[in-house]
Amino acid sequence: MTTRQKVQIALFWSLIFFLALFLARTNTLNRATGLGQAINYLPLVLIVALFVLVITIDRSIKSGGRSKTVVTRSGIGYDLHRLSEGRKLMIGGIEVPFDKGSLGHSDGDVLAHALCDALLGAAGLGDIGTHFSDTDAKWKGVSSLLFLEHTRKLIDERHLRINHLDAVVICERPKLGPHFPAMRDALARSLGIAAGQLNLKAKTNEGTGEIGRGEAIAAQAIATLEG
Ligand code: MG
Cα(9) to centroid of ligand 1, in Å? Predict the structure, then answer.
């Protein structure tokens, strides 16, 4: 029901109220309905009804005069990091045993970064560099799960809710499938969602390019928010 319709109803009931008040005062209703003195309470009942209606309209106007509608928003994310010896390979918030690791200002978690960008994009909040600059010493060497926790707070502040996340990690080695359950648990915990709301996939690059040569790792993600 629109605000205009509610105002029209309010006017209608106001007219009924004043008409009933007038009739009651002249005792016309007493004779017409046979309710006797009970009819004297009719104005009071109508006053209460009118009060409730006015409060309802007031709340409707404050909320913009529209019924609450759930809107679905989507965002994509992509990230790539070079792989180098002497670094830990952090993917999805956990350390994956490997002879190389991601180079990066933080822990180089390519999956967390792609998810972060997807979430920020869906929320209309820019990108990961806007919030976690790779020139800020504050983020040097930190776990990328912190980025996701902060992103979740930003999403909460905008009264949005994470519906679903899907991501693919692209690397030639190591095999990631066995690590997905632990990654999903770590990521879901940071985002305050159920692990079932996060899907992970792995691909190789068929031996081509820098990913195929084992020199880099990449991730793509899509986030769906509601609010
Ligand atoms: Mg990155």
Answer: 57
CATH topology of domain 72-226: 60s Ribosomal Protein L30; Chain: A; (3.30.1330)
Three-state DSSP at 187 gives helix
pLDDT 10s digits, 150-192: 999 999 999 999 999 999 999 999 999 999 999 999 999 999 9
pLDDT tens figures, 25-63: 666 656 666 666 666 666 666 667 676 776 776 666 666
Helix residue ranges, H only, 141-179? 145-157
What spacing in Å lies between the alpha carbon of 88 and ligand 1's midpoint? 14
- CA–centroid distance, 16 to ligand 1, in Å, is 67
Cα angle value 106/108/112 (rounded, 5°): 100
Cα of 171 vs centre of ligand 1, distance in Å, is 15
Q: Tens digits of per-residue pLDDT, 133-143?
A: 988 998 999 99
| Neighbouring residues of 159: CB distance < 8 A, sequence distance ≥ 6 | 227
Q: Is 222 in contact with 118 (CB distance < 8 Å)? A: yes
Angstrom CA distances, 32 to 24, 39, 44, 192, stand at: 11, 10, 19, 64
| Residue 160 CA, ligand 1 centroid: distance in Å | 24
Neighbours of ion ligand 1 (CB under 5 A): 79, 113
Q: What percent of the chain has pLDDT over 70?
A: 76
d(CA 128, CA 117): 5
Domain range annotation of the chain: 3-62, 72-226
Global pTM reads: 0.72
